[in-house]
Amino acid sequence: METNTLPRYDVVVVGAGFAGLFMLHRVRAAGMSAHLFEAGAAVGGTWYWNRYPGARCDFESLDYSYSFDEDLQQEWNWRERYSGQREIQRYLDHVTDRYELRPHISFRTRIAGARFDEDDQTWVLADASGLLARARHVVMATGSLSTPRLPDIPGVETFAGRSLHTGAWPEEEVEFTDRRVAVIGTGSSGVQVSVEIAKQADQLYVVQRTPSYVVPAAHEPLDPDVLTAERGRYAERRALARKAVLGVDFATRPEPTLSLPDEEVRAEFDRRWAAGGAALLAAFPDLIVDAEANAKLAGYIKGRVREIVKDPGTADALSSQDYPVGARRLVVGPGFYEMFNQPNVALVDVKRSPIEEITETGIRTADGFYEVDDIVYATGFDAMTGALLAMDIRGRGGRSLAEHWAAGPVTYLGLQAAGFPNMFFITGPGSPSVFSNMVHSIEQHVQFVGDLLVALRDRGASTVEPTAEAEAQWVEHVNEVAGMTLLPKAASWYMGANVPGKPRVFMPYVGGVPAYREICDKVASNQYEGLLIA
Fold first, then answer.
1. CA-based nearest residue to 493, from 247, 182, 148
2. Taking the CB of residue 524, how many other CB atoms lie within 10 A of it?
3. pLDDT tens digits along 461-493
4. Which of 40, 142, 280, 354 could form a disulfide with 48 if both were Cys (CB 3.0 to 4.6 A apart)?
5. For the chain, how are helix, strand and coil distributed in percent, rounded to 5?
6. Cβ neighbour number for residue 441 with a 10 Å cutoff
7. First-last CA distance in the chain
8. Closest by alpha carbon to 324, among 510, 506, 490, 508?
9. Does pTM surpass 0.85?
10. Per-residue burial over 412-425, b = 16 or more CB atoms within 10 Å of its CB, e = otherwise
11. Each residue of 279-314: pLDDT tens digit?
12. Is 166:377 a contact under the CB 8 Å cutoff?
């Protein structure tokens, strides 16, 4: 198809998760022509692809949901305190139909490239089969955790049994009864899927290289009376969230950890452990900045592991973390440590005995062989940049985004990159994104971009992009703030460390949701300082 005959839109959105759906609704409500392209067969984003047993959000349902429409908040009946994948998918289906978005979405369409046409000042988008559309603006709502990756282990392709990845799970139900299964990886996905597979499998090997800090989740039905009460205080709940560092009100105590007696600190940790959830890391304000305070929390969690896991060797391996709590994502999962007391579950510690190869029939380590029928790879994602760099994105002068980010991702506010006019990244690198309640941060970004697009239209402007100076200053600020915390002190996917050859750059902005919003509001009120508008 010739480029001059392509469908033209004011805005094209890529990705039909929480970010893409709200962005599509926002620009359509503003009277702009818009279309959304989605690689999957349904809405959901990460919640469409991550269908593995046990897939569940680690923020409470009442927080991990849209706040932009009070009627939507009041009409939706959350069933569980922490929603599972199917419930979140059901919610997003409801949102799609409630706001009549489905006619404006093309499913099973994976964007392969986007090129900025400097003469026409529009983006030309294509999939693998050819050109698709032109758009004045492109919003990449592709997700921070949406590009699954396999580990670099010799022989992966030779395994004759079933190979599954938690980030690309089959739509049909997968049965593990009477089977020998290995789960490789003990991040959030590995923890969740292992607990469920252990209920079925004849033998489960949990293959661990780096142990996670895992806290209980207290998954339970959401009492209807609690739901009714919370609906009555939704405005208050959301207002408190806007003031909270992570975009959720975890009722952080004001006192520094080290200012309190050990028994009082322990009592607070005990209370939060019993309640379940990520609130444990937010118990005191200094836990991610003070090494001694963090060590108290690390010692507490390790002590809990040794209390729960009966085999001393297994307990030692599960509590052998050599990094601060929070430097790798805190995992919220029910019954993980208890699972190792089951006779059909064994831990394979590959830090002590590395994997040498995968064969037709199993996994060979330095000191043993594990024969299995199935291998489940819970080995994570090329986080934050993977989905963007998988596309051939070319801005001014034909320069690719891959070239621009060769030394690590650089953005202004996590929203735009210099030289790529009219392209926006929702919860991109350099924004709170994965170090916050994602839905909260998504809404803030969508509102910012939506307001900016309206302002451009009102001015009669054609393009907007950050200055190189503003981009450089923002990257410096992101790194400076990260350096004030303990968070870069682990080889984590926050740093890109799980992808060989990927530049080691701490990607999220960890200055907190309130500080970030204040910065964005100031940018907007100062006529969008740092942005070139033409």
1. 148
2. 16
3. 999 999 999 999 999 999 999 999 998 887 765
4. 40
5. 35, 20, 45
6. 28
7. 30
8. 490
9. yes
10. bbbbbbbbbbbbbb
11. 999 999 999 999 999 999 999 999 999 999 999 999
12. yes
